[in-house]
Structures are given as C-alpha cells and as structure tokens.
Amino acid sequence: MRKLLMLFVTLLVIVSISLFADPIILKAADDHAEGYPTVEALKFMGKIIEIMTNGKYKIEVYPSAQLGSEKETIEQTILGAIDIDRVSVSPLVAFYPPIGVLTLPYVFRDQDHMWKVLEGPIGEELLKGLEKVGLVGLCYYDAGARSFYTVKKPILKPEDLKGLKIRVQKNPVMIELMKTLGASPVPMAFEEVYTALQTGVIDGAENNPPSYYETRHFEVAPYYSLDGHTRIPEVVLVSKVLWDKLTDEEKLIFKTAALASAEYEKYLWNQWEEMALKKVQEGGAKIFHPDVTLFQKAVQPLYDRYPAYKEFLERIQAVK
Q: Transmembrane ranges (predicted)?
C-alpha cells in the first residue's frame, strides 16, 4: 500500500509539473503577413507541438518580417536566436548551394511531379544536407508556380517571347532564363510593375496567381499563360542549436507536426490559387495552358551552365 501511495504521489508531481510549469517559448519567423498560408500553417504546427508535448513548448509566430528579411532570419536561425524559420528555397542557396537545383526553371513537369520529388528521397536528402550549415529542414511548403502574363498576346510557345521585354526579379537564373528564351529581361522593383505594364515600358511579367490577382496586374496584362516555369518551394527550418537539445521523442513530434502543417498549407494554398484564378477571369483576364515540354527543351542550354546540378537534375527528371 505504501509503495502504491508513493507511486500515486510521484505521478501527481509529474502531472503538476507538466500542467503548471512555464512553457518554453520558441520564436518562429515568417516574412508573409497574417492570414497567408505559410503563416497559418506555422501556427497550426505550433498548436500540434504544444498539445503533443503537454504544453512544454509554445511557438510564437512573428509574421510580416518582424524578425528580419529571409536572409537575416536564416542567419539568426543558424545562431539559435530564432528557433523555427519559414523561408523560400531561394535565399537558402547562399548557405547551402545544392538546394539551388530546386530554383531552376522547368525542373518540375507539374505540381504532382514536384511533390513526388520533394516528398521522396531527393527532397529528404536536400533537407538533411542543411544540417551541415546549422539548420534542420523539417518539410516543404507550397509557394505555387510562376507563369508569364503579357499585355498584347499570350505566350504559348518559347518563340512567343522573342523580343519581348519581361520584368524579372533581380535573380541571375531568371535573367538567364529570359535570355535563353529570346526575351529581354528587365530587372525591376515589384511596386513599379503595374505602371510599367500600363505605359509599355515592359511587355509582360511573371508571377503566381495570387500575386497576379492582388497586384491587379491582370488589369493591364490580361494574357496569363500557365507555363509554371519555376516552382520554388518554401522550407520550414529548425535551428540545430534547438534540435540538439530535443529528446528523440520531441524530435519526432516536431517532424510529425511539420509534416501535418505542410498538408494544411497545401490545402490553404490551393484555395488561394483557385480564388485568384477565378477573380482574374472575372476581371477580364484570359487563361492559357501552353505545352510545357516545348519550354523544357528550349532551356536545356541554361541547364548546361550549372554543371554542379547535373546529377540532381537527372535524378529529378527520372522521377515518374
């Protein structure tokens, strides 16, 4: 009886500690605004972690780049000043070059192919590689596909881009893509694009459906060709400083919560895309679906300029 009583008291102490101990607060960074799919997914991940650890960990999400730009938050995550970070693959390339293969144009045939790659051995290998630079990659989030929209005519084949002035991000790969397809790349601040399209300074631009809708670019460039030339995913990172402090059980909880949040984020993103495509068509935009294989063949010379990605490219293209 005495042993049973002692066991009961011990259990009460354990439960009391889990219920009343102050939670460990973890900082999570995202540069998007409240309500954006990635922000909501991070919050969802945080709730799962809090529940599954009996309140030991509580995640506070800081949206709208409150903790800095993506480059800055990556640096802080490596140092352990930020615990969890949601960033695009693009700025990660400077820290871990192999993951840059995911930023190449037309590397994925379509959305289904992308997820087979990211959720398969290749995607896991790239996430694992991030540990070399002090980061732990938990999962990928969807960021949609960037496609061309133009003022005077749709882009249905590579030849349609010849001679056109297309706004691009200040990104070497995107600049090379335009040149390879025969267009003239025009690096330009995002805020200037609407007026540039309206006044004829540029003939077109490229972005994903939600951005095309939210910027009202469909009003001045109504031809939207869904070629999906880049499908650059997002990544959820954990600082290795934090990761090494977690128990094996906690690591499993964090990974499971991240994967669940990835599914939630996909659902939210698809909703955003469907809404955006519906709204732009209601606003007068015309949607086109060009043959992507024509563009993939046309950009082969660009791939040849990145020999470091050759093995990964071949493996990605072999995924069925």
A: none
